[in-house]
Design a protein that fits this description.
Distance between the termini: 50 Å
Strand content: 15-25%
Number of helices: 6
Number of strands: 9
Structural class: alpha+beta
Largest sheet: 9 strands, mixed
Order of helices and strands: EEEHEEHHHEEHEEH
Radius of gyration: 19 Å
Strand order of the largest sheet: 1-4-5-3-2-8-9-7-6
Shape: globular
Helix content: 10-25%
Length: 282
Amino acid sequence: MAEMAVTVAAGTLRPCSGVSPAASGNRRLAGWRQLAPAAPAKLRLSSPALRVPRAASPAAVEQDGSSSNTDTVPTPKVIIDQDSDPDATIVEVTLGDRLGDLLDTMSALRNLGLNVVKASVCLDSSGKHNKFAITKSSTGRKIDDPELLEAVRLTIINNMLEYHPEASSQLAMGATFGIEPPTEVVDVDIATHIDIYDDGPERSLLVVESADRPGLLVDLVKIIADINITVQSGEFDTEGLLAKAKFHVSYRGKPLIKALQQVLANSLRYFLRRPTTEDASF
């Protein structure tokens, strides 16, 4: 397995430069591996259980004051970016100034069959940003499997909560992985927003915001694939109790026409707002 290359020395930080925004423009990127379309009557929003590697030991937490106990817990953020780098999946993790070097997280990612080919830490007004460039060990290329991307997301969130349990109530995943579920309940109907824009001559941009939950990334891609729309690339952000996704999508190599945009928006809105709907209820 390839060794990781860390671009900053331990204990040093550099200013952030364009950390969050994904690259823009219409350059073609390698598409995600498509999931098999599901029959409409059989689609479920609960994905198969994913094995999420845990951190080795809470004793590995840095004792440098980065996990200071303050009254205000910053909003945890996890960004999975498929746009910025054509050769690697970029993952960014932020929890104010509380995160250390996240060596445990990199170890857990290797347990998923991934290589961390580059890692960096930078600092701006919102805190420390830990960024990883990861590839599949088997291919040396970026991740194109939505289920593996979701496993990466859940692994990072699980490890964050293991080392920083104070963030449990700030994340929707706190009910699954943390010691304390969120105190705030998100109204799915209010929190769900879906927008589709033209994004050049060959694709459209789908923007989705909704209440977060385990398996959401896989579910979104399945719903899109179910109506024969191709996901070319995108970004999936976990920000506190919410999930925000941006997907570059196309239909037969062209942008989505208005009628298909409406079908896609209606399909996503229905499943996101009714995540527990069962066929037997009809």
